[in-house]
C-alpha cells in the first residue's frame, strides 16, 4: 500500500458470494483494508473459502445466527451482497446494529436507494453499486450512485473500495439500470461472442481445444490491445480491416446483419427486465 493512500475502515460483506467475494479479495490484495474485513455466508462450506484470506473473519450463518448483526455493528462500510429478494429482511435485521456513521453499499440489482433508506436508520449514507464479473480478476468496472445522505467523503471511500477491483463510474441512480445493460451484462455478450467464434472455428476443421484457444485468446488479446491503446475501438477496427481484404468481407457480413440494432435490442431487453425487478416483478 502506498504511504500516501489512506486505509479503508473496517468492512463487512454480508452475503460474500461470487461478486461480494471478488470485491473482498480485491480489497485484501490492495492492502487498504487495515481495519479488517468480516464476511458472512449462509453455509460453513462457503465461509471456509474465504477464511484463509489475510485479515478476513469469515462467518457461517448456519452456526452463528447473529453473524450479520455482529458484522454490521463492527464496520464502517457495509456491503449488501445477498440476492435482491433477501435484501429487505437483511436490512431489517441489521438496522438496529449499524454503527453510527456507517456507509451501506448495495450490490443488489433492482433494489433502489429509496428502499434502503426507508429500512435503515434516518440519515444513513447509502450508495447503490453495479459491479461486473471481471472484478474477479481486477478488471471490473463498477457504477456507483449516491443516496441523499452520502456526502463527498462517503462517495470517495466507496470509490476507493471498488477501484481495488477495476474502474469506477459515478452516475445518478436513474442511470444505474442502463449502466447494468452495458457493463453489468456486457461480459456475457463477450463470452457469447467467444462461444460462437469457437463453434465457427470447429466448423472449419479445428479441434475443440484449438478452436477454444483461437477464439478466447483472440478476445483476450484484442481487449488487451484496446486497453493499451489511446485510440477508440472504431479506429482499432479500421487498422485491422485492410481494403478489399478478408476482414473487410467478414465485417461487411456483420454490418449487413445490423449488429448495432441487435445490440440495441438486447440492451433494451435487459433494461426492461431491470425496471421490472425494480418494480418487484
From TrEMBL:
Highest taxon listed in the record's lineage: Bacteria
Keywords from the UniProt entry: Amino-acid biosynthesis, Cytoplasm, NADP, Oxidoreductase, Proline biosynthesis
Localization: Cytoplasm
Any Pfam family the entry gives: F420_oxidored
Known pathway: Amino-acid biosynthesis; L-proline biosynthesis; L-proline from L-glutamate 5-semialdehyde: step 1/1
Gene3D superfamilies with a match to the protein in the record: NAD(P)-binding Rossmann-like Domain, ProC C-terminal domain-like
EC annotation from Swiss-Prot or TrEMBL: 1.5.1.2
Enzymatic reactions: L-proline + NADP(+) = (S)-1-pyrroline-5-carboxylate + NADPH + 2 H(+); L-proline + NAD(+) = (S)-1-pyrroline-5-carboxylate + NADH + 2 H(+)
Domain named Pyrroline-5-carboxylate reductase catalytic N-terminal: residues: 10-110
Residues covered by the Pyrroline-5-carboxylate reductase dimerisation domain: 173-277
Role this protein plays: Catalyzes the reduction of 1-pyrroline-5-carboxylate (PCA) to L-proline.
Family note: Belongs to the pyrroline-5-carboxylate reductase family.
Entry protein name: Pyrroline-5-carboxylate reductase
Species of origin: Microbacterium awajiense
Gene expressing this chain: proC
Amino acid at each position: 500500500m502506498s504511504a500516501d493512500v489512506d486505509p479503508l475502515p473496517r468492512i463487512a460483506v454480508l452475503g460474500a458470494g461470487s461478486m461480494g467475494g471478488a470485491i473482498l479479495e480485491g480489497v485484501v490484495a490492495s492492502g487498504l483494508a487495515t481495519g479488517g474485513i468480516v464476511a458472512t455466508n449462509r453455509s460453513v462450506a462457503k465461509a471456509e473459502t474465504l477464511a484463509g484470506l489475510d485479515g478476513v473473519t469469515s462467518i457461517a450463518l448456519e452456526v452463528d445466527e447473529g453473524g450479520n448483526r455482529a458484522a454490521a455493528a463492527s464496520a464502517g462500510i457495509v456491503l449488501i451482497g445477498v440476492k435482491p429478494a433477501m435484501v429487505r429482511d437483511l436490512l431489517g435485521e441489521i438496522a438496529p446494529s449499524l454503527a453510527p456513521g456507517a456507509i451501506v453499499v448495495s450490490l443488489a440489482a433492482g433494489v433502489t436507494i429509496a428502499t434502503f433508506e426507508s429500512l435503515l436508520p434516518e440519515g444513513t449514507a447509502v450508495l447503490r453499486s453495479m459491479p461486473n464479473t471481471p472484478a474477479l480478476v481486477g478488471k471490473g468496472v463498477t457504477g456507483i450512485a449516491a443516496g441523499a445522505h452520502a456526502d463527498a467523503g462517503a462517495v470517495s471511500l466507496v470509490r476507493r473500495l471498488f477501484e481495488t477491483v477495476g474502474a469506477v463510474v459515478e452516475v445518478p441512480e436513474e442511470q444505474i439500470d442502463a449502466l447494468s445493460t452495458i457493463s453489468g451484462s456486457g461480459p456475457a455478450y463477450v463470452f457469447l461472442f467467444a462461444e460462437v467464434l469457437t463453434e465457427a472455428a470447429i466448423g472449419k476443421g479445428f479441434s475443440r481445444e484449438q478452436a477454444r484457444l483461437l477464439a478466447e485468446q483472440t478476445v483476450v488479446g484484442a481487449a488487451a490491445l484496446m486497453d493499451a491503446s489511446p485510440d477508440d475501438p472504431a479506429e482499432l477496427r479500421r487498422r485491422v480491416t485492410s481494403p478489399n481484404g478478408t476482414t473487410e468481407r467478414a465485417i461487411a457480413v456483420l454490418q449487413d446483419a445490423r449488429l448495432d440494432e441487435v445490440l440495441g435490442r438486447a440492451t433494451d431487453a435487459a433494461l426492461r427486465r431491470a425496471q421490472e425487478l425494480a418494480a418487484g416483478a
